[in-house]
Amino acid sequence: MTGWFDGTAGVGTVPPDATMILGHRFVAAPAAPPEPVPAPAPGFTSRQLRDVMGQFATGVTVVTMPGVDGPSAVTVNSFTSLSLDPALAMVCLRTRSRGAADLRAAARFAVNILGAGQGDLCALFASSDRPSGHQAFAAFPHRTGRTGAPLLDGTVGHVECVLESQVPVGDHTLFVGAVLAVETGSADGPLVFHGGRYFTT
Q: Which residue among 72, 128, 195, 196 is buried most deeply as judged by most CB within 10 Å?
């Protein structure tokens, strides 16, 4: 057995992981830590990565948040359900983005899952110079949800959350929300994003 001889241990003090061999007590030596595996150098450009990831078709959402100066919103397609019990959902935003700052400040948000006819709404809130405050929603029928965030009409569904945790990963942050309320919307089908273009089902 690989290990060392513990000649000082008396009767009754034998470590629980000790092994007796020919009357001698041996304690297993701690395993050596694994050698770190160097990360391979990326064999692709940022543009290539974006192009390949864009081949994964997703739905599109507008995440809305209440604010002191009125509500704000940002278009997000990195959204998922994390858990049913407890009910948790997640959105992913660039850490230093305006949308991430708004979400941290609000600590509450609503995920509006866009319907097939809401491409204009998607484009508006995807813009870096998108409007905020009540005037930003004036052209879009909506109501205020339980979180104080706008719930947009014409979607396929809404998910309202209270921010539970934030997990920085690379240049993005995962925002995990405890789900407070859900609702199926009135749209016939979702807006789909694939390869830099919008589609309907």
A: 72
* CA–CA separation, 15 and 9 (whole Å): 8
In a domain, 21, yes or no: no
Neighbours of 28 (CB within 10 A): 13
CATH number at residue 82: 2.30.110.10
Domain count for the chain, please give it. 1
Name residue 132's amino acid.
S
Using only C-alpha atoms, the chain has a radius of gyration, in whole angstroms, of: 26
Report pLDDT digits (tens) over 4-58.
Answer: 434 444 445 555 555 555 555 555 656 777 887 777 777 889 899 989 999 999 9
Beta bridge partners of 142: 152
Q: In this structure, are residues 109 and 161 in contact, taking their beta carbons and an 8 Å threshold?
A: yes
Q: What is the pTM (predicted TM-score) of this model?
A: 0.78
Would 125 be classed as within a structural domain? yes
Q: Are 62 and 125 in contact (CB under 8 A)?
A: yes
- What is the distance between the alpha carbons of residues 116 and 121, in angstroms, rounded to a whole number? 11
Q: What share of the chain is helix, strand, coil (3-state, %, to 5)?
A: 15, 45, 45
Q: Is residue 90 part of a domain?
A: yes
| Domain span at 179 | 58-200
